[in-house]
Amino acid sequence: MSHTIAPVLGEATVQELREAVRGEIVTPGEDGYAEACRIWNGAHDDRRPALVVRCTGAADVIAAVGFARSNGLTIAVRGGGHSVAGFSTCDDGIVIDLSPMAGVRVDPAALRATVGGGAVWADVDHETQAHGLATTGGLVSSTGVAGFTLGGGIGWTMRKFGLACDNLAAADVVTADGRLVHASETENGDLLWGLRGGGGNFGIVTQFEFDLHQLGPVIYAGPIFYPAAAAHDLLRAFRDWVGDAPDQITALVNLTTAPPLPVIPEAWHGKKVAAFIAACTGPVEAGEALVRAFRDVAEPIADLLGPMPYHVIQTLIDPLWGKGIHSYFKATNLARLDDELADRLCETHLAAPGPQCEIHVHQMGGAVGRVADGATAFAERSMPFVLNAVTGWHDPGEGTAHREWARTVIAAASQASTGRAYVNFLGDTDAARTSYSDETYAQLVSLKNDYDPTNVFRLNQNIEPATVAS
Fold first, then answer.
1. What's the pLDDT band for 8 if we cut at 50, 70, 90?
2. CA distances from 376 to 89, 187, 197 (A)
């Protein structure tokens, strides 16, 4: 496929934008263009935008949105660039890159962090942990704060502190018509409702305000690895344990392949394993009792669950998911984890086509479930588990097998599914309608009608405004 700049984007036209922004503008043929196009998910790295605008502040974002609208350009918004479905880039359009806007300011007295729209979770954790504070963040530290939060935000502290979107107290948003508006509980509260789980449908968030909580620097956390033969027993133990687990602990089971890390015996490298991974927000000395049952499931390959710095659990899997890996996710919310499903997951795990094919079963509940369904735009609250099929590969020719495998994992759970899914875990581009209840979706459409009636912000799990859908 050839990628050309549309005729209307002559250099004189682009020069007008260069003069209107403080940030850098990169176009095809210029030094640095190839790097400016790169995103985390290599499966979508062949896109060639007409220009990338590296914004330094809200004024640059406003200018870029106005330029895109005037010239009929598709807009891709990039924070951390981790969109699994490839929404962080586009062909022949404009990428509004927020990465220069990565500042984080912590007010330890108010327990509040002000975070730039281009920050990643490593930026937030670095600043908040200096004060022994944290908020629910991503499972990979290079994940962008924006996309993660706007889709909901499933992380290691969610059962105690809530989802990332539950900790979103306020936001500054550039709307489709170029206004900068503030959303909080007392100002544009309808917009804040939509930002808490409705994705990037309603504007570009240039600044977030998060509630913070006392945590760290050391917490009780980490993984226990078992042979794949123990996966059945692990899943059943996990299912039986979650009902009485206190809010202070958040855990998941991962059916995966042992990575070549020094902490795992070399004889197990590249072999199928099952892992229990947990993080405790309570006293470090109370952590061992909460997870004791899992030490009796089977003889561990490696038991790394214990006191560790919070930033270590936050960066634990970073080396496996570096920039440029090809990735595809597919997910569903589970109403139950019965023996039949556990058996199917174990069988599918053994049939994985590559070492970075993983089956994650996330424990939900706690603070997540105590927020009423519909109180935020987050798709669903009552499910006890979220199932996520995660794939990563490096050879482009392996993509089809990995995607088919992920779809097989989710199909195996059809009878146990609630019918909804977490939008941030969806690698397909047209999944929004199935993620929300009819009532929530109707409310999202109404909000879209108000804030983006012509669907300017459509590279996302898109909520079509009624004016476009009709």
1. low
2. 28, 16, 7
